[in-house]
Amino acid sequence: MERSHNSNERRGTVILPAPTAWPFVFAVGTSLIFAGMLTSVWVSILGGVFWLFGAVGWFRQVLPHEHEEEVPVVFEAAPAMAPAPAVAHLEVAVKVPRAWLPLKIYPISAGVKGGLAGGLAMALLAMLYGVISHHSIWYPINLIAGSLYAAPAIPGVDELVKFHPGWLLFAFAMHLTMCLLVGLLYGAMLPMLPTRPIVLGGVVGPLLWTGLVYYALGFVNPLLDEKIDWVWFTASQVAFGVVAGLVVVRHNKVWTSENLPFAVRAGLEAPGLMHSRDDEAPKA
After folding, report:
1. Which pLDDT tens digit goes with each residue over 32-54?
2. 104-105 and 68-72 as β-strands: parallel, antiparallel, unpaired?
3. CA-to-CA distance for 88 and 276, rounded, in angstroms?
4. Which of 38, 144, 172, 217 satisfies CB 3.0 to 4.6 Å to 225 for a cystine?
5. Angle, nearest 10°, between helix axes 165-189 and 108-134?
6. What is the H or E stretch that residue 13 is in?
7. 10 Å Cβ neighbour count for 153?
8. Does the pLDDT at position 4 exceed 80?
9. Backbone phi, then psi, for 281, in 5-degree steps?
10. Is residue 138 exposed (0-12), middle (13-18) or buried (19+ Cβ within 10 Å)?
């Protein structure tokens, strides 16, 4: 067989397996067998016929001798290699092997504090809306807890203005979780905004988020979608973004871990890079 291959190469042809459609028939039969388990037994029977014919045809294609065909070899001239264009290297302020972006980020604590402060500002605006519109601070809190109820079981306004301990705990947990997550997101994104991070992260971001919530709220919280005042909702989102952004940007940025030496990241003792002992005073 090796001599046959060599002789064919000298004649300008190569031997390849002959094309066949039996594997496709076999695959279709297998799919129909399983599809019949969900639809009808006749579909599985038809799949079994396809499967049997595909298996027999496929085996006869390779046994006892594999079907092959000679394919002519077309030689093409090697394409001309153009020189690679020059690459503009990014200049960074520190000497690192390559640029990691962002070079500095705000610490996690900044995002947590920003989320808590923004959530407090949002809650105060929401309670102010409840007092003005329905003379009750519990109205917006109960609206947040409205995701506990399906559309047919939505409570009326008389229930929404009353104090419900269970609703309060659920709304508090949901509001706290969302504020912490968004606060961490602000802490990660604000260093990557080129200019005016408060405007982009505190105004543009909340407006985009409000537009997304406008179309998705009906599926998440039908009660809030029915009773929401979008002017106050947008104002509370902007208040959260501005307050959270102001708290985050007041913190000092820290280097990303990629820009630290490996010994420091691994916690190893590295003279000149970190202290050998925790209680050892830094050398001058």
Report:
1. 888 888 888 888 898 899 999 88
2. unpaired
3. 40
4. 217
5. 140
6. strand 13-17
7. 9
8. no
9. -75, 145
10. buried
Backbone angles phi, psi at 76, to 5 degrees: -120, 150
pLDDT-wise least confident of 140-144, 149-153, 269-273, 276-280: 276-280
Query: Is the distance from CB of 29 to CB of 49 less than 8 angstroms?
Result: yes
Q: Which residue is listed with tokens 């264009």?
A: 85
Domain regions of the chain by residue span? 7-72, 104-259
132 token code pair: 């003005």
Cβ contact 206:237 at 8 Å: yes
Q: Are 233 and 214 spatial neighbours (Cβ–Cβ below 8 Å)?
A: no
272: left (phi over 0), alpha (psi -120 to 50) or beta: left
**How far apart are alpha carbons 222 and 163 in whole angstroms?**
20
Strands (E), 27-116: 68-72, 104-105
| Residue the block writes with tokens 């995002």 | 111
pLDDT value at residue 2: 47
